[in-house]
Design goal:
Two copies of one chain form a homodimer. Chain A has two domains: 2-110, 3-Layer(aba) Sandwich (Rossmann fold), CATH 3.40.50.720; 121-379, Dihydrodipicolinate Reductase, domain 2, CATH 3.30.360.10. In chain A, 35% of the residues lie in helices and 25% in strands. Chain A is built from twelve helices and 19 strands. In chain A, strands 7, 8, 9, 10, 11, 12, 13, 15, 16, 17 and 19 form an eleven-stranded mixed β-sheet that branches. In chain A, a hairpin with a 3-residue loop joins strand 11 (267-274) and strand 12 (278-285). Chain A starts with a strand and ends with a strand. At the A-B interface, helix 5, strand 12 and helix 11 of A face helix 5, strand 12 and helix 11 of B. Strand 12 of chain A pairs antiparallel with strand 12 of chain B, so a sheet runs across the interface.
Chain lengths: 381, 381
């Protein structure tokens, strides 16, 4: 196996180091705009040097973002090269095209590292599918937001303060929007749902609420109810009919004894439900240099072992997403007038009667015209 | 694929039903001493009818126990048939022989269902091994004891009372010794350690303490310390040097916020540590008809997909187990005189200074000559 590596950032240098240590997989070319000391012989800023090199059979795409990652991936697959990626944003928006292209070209497109970092979640979904019908997914799939929520809850600090610390320590990006607005989780649940249910899910169909508006006051309110609640950003989906799924991302209040409450700092946890096996939960580090490099290397080893049967069949068609068919009570904090059925639990804070996810996300959108700082969270029984 | 099924008990009938539903794998013969209505055409009480049938390429061994399971497995492998099993007791005592035989005969011996029921733990250990070095295992691998401990802790009831209920409801066997004395967990950690570290571990080298001696008084003592402890039966092993591991099973006190504390009723949780990926945790149902049938079917699908590269290399040689190299403080409740460094925390109850696992298990053996009801539990930080 001879590799063309796109990107020598944190993950890229991690995978390079891993492969050097093992010695049986050769990195021949690295696409980088700037030169890194010691890598001058390998680096190029021209993708064609990788694309047109017949010795390079596998491309590792670690550029991230939409372009040029999408174009390079399409070109590599069309050139008959395997591609391994961790790019959830690009994949989730081009999944049908890329999986179809890989199948038509008879090459491997491995994206294990795109959901859950090192956690072998997608791979096990593919394997589980061969012996059961998968019916639901649920989990904490974004480490940055979990770190922020965990620290807020544990130390009683406010959102902006904790976010700044997370940015300073490298756990959150300078532009944290993709994480804190739930976009990263949205892409991941769309990808995982497609693998589990064999129907593509459009990211834009996933109702998504992040944690940008949570405040220390909310945390105090959570602790006041019964045994207290712990807040986590949970992405989930469920098959509710033939080709119909619910699929959404929202802050969620769970009991302090719940599995999700025990997920600390920037860890991830993700569960799958099957008709026969029940619920399986996978936990681990969802990001980071070594864990992600491990996941990418597993993709390479899978290709070497020839595990293609497990990647097929690829999904067919798109799921209809209907979040009017999922519901539960919500915690809602807003200064806007609220005229739905709800119990007032403090200044501007309410627990609603069970209502649909669709209705709550729409209500929040309307009320935000009056109160942009509104925060809400689903309540899990 | 044509199957010879050994045993039509709970799991056997589960796997039969699954395969009937799928339709692509045929069960041709079932070994059973008694006849089941509707199965008369398939059933035989003569194993040779399966062994000598050239059409049967795969044997599912669900007899359990040492004999005749061991003899039948050896005969089937020698006859060039694949074997799939859930038999942890037999496998753990004959692992080197059976894995070697399968390799020599060029057939598959799949034992995924022997550890963690439906949880895809062993399979992922094999896959993880291809991209990382595994260094530690830890988990709750016996559902029966977890159910008993969870109910004792939640309802404040005593051991005998809860065990009787578990037996009446089918969660514990009439002879519960293998579960409550930790033998089942001992076999499982020996098997999983061999897969993870590529050195066989003799079950008899695994220091093992069960939960037979725990009482309601102990539960009260656990709750009195700090935030309170939750008791779980944990099996664990760790690489401590070249070819040297610690490996033991003992009741263990964990914080109420620990992952293990969130494992309720008869569920299992098991973690693996790798140098690169960190800690991965897998949770799910560790037993039961449908989950175990699912795990057995996954083994069959793996064989159909030809995943043999992942099963090799098989372990070489035996690990040296040295439990003098693991240590922590212990909770100890005994009426026998205690002359080790320990803080007395109530009538006959102590928290010891950190001491080696080897020393504690030996001390308990000595003190039990005076106080057969002695109970102890490791304390996890």
């Amino acid at each position: 196996m001879v590799i063309g590596l796109l990107g020598l950032g944190t993950i890229g240098s991690g995978i390079y180091e891993h492969l050097q240590k093992r010695g049986d997989i050769k990195v021949k070319r690295i696409l980088e705009l700037k030169r890194h000391p010691g890598f001058e012989q390998l680096e190029t800023s021209d993708f064609n040097e990788i694309l047109n090199d017949p010795e390079i059979d596998t491309v590792i795409e670690l550029i991230g973002g939409m372009e040029p990652a999408h174009t390079f991936t399409v070109q590599a697959l069309k050139a008959g090269k395997n591609v391994v990626t961790a790019n959830k944003l690009m994949l989730s928006h081009h999944m049908e095209e890329l999986l179809g292209l890989a199948r038509d070209m008879g090459v491997h497109y491995r994206y294990d590292a795109s959901v859950g970092g090192s956690i072998p979640f997608l791979y096990n979904l593919m394997r589980h599918r061969t012996a059961d019908t998968l019916t639901a997914l649920s989990g904490i799939v974004n480490g940055t937001t979990n770190l922020i929520l965990d620290i807020m809850q544990t130390d009683g600090r406010d959102f902006d303060d904790v976010l700044k610390q997370a940015q300073a320590e490298g756990y959150a990006e300078a532009n944290p929007a993709a994480d804190i607005d739930g976009i990263d989780a949205q892409c991941k649940i769309a990808i995982a749902s497609a693998v589990a249910y064999q129907k593509y899910v459009r990211p834009e169909d996933v109702l998504t609420e992040g944690i940008r508006h949570i405040s220390g006051r909310d945390i105090i309110n959570f602790k006041r109810r019964g045994a207290g609640y712990v807040c986590r950003l949970i992405a989930q989906s469920q098959v509710v009919g033939q080709g119909v799924v619910t699929c959404y991302v929202e802050p969620t209040l769970v009991a302090p004894t719940a599995t999700e409450a025990a997920v600390k700092l920037n860890n991830n946890t993700i569960s799958v439900t099957g008709e026969y096996f029940g619920v399986h939960t996978f936990q681990g580090q969802g990001a980071g240099k070594d864990p992600t490099a491990f996941a990418v290397e597993l993709g390479l080893r899978d290709i070497l072992d020839g595990i293609s049967p497990r990647v097929n069949p690829i999904p067919e068609g798109y799921a209809k997403v209907d979040n009017a068919l999922a519901g539960h009570p919500y915690y809602l904090r807003t200064t806007a007038p609220v005229d739905i059925e709800a119990e007032r639990i403090g200044d501007d804070a309410y627990i609603t009667a069970p209502m649909s996810v669709q209705a709550m996300h729409e209500l929040a959108k309307t009320l935000r015209e009056t109160d942009p700082d509104l925060f809400f969270a689903g309540i899990q029984d």
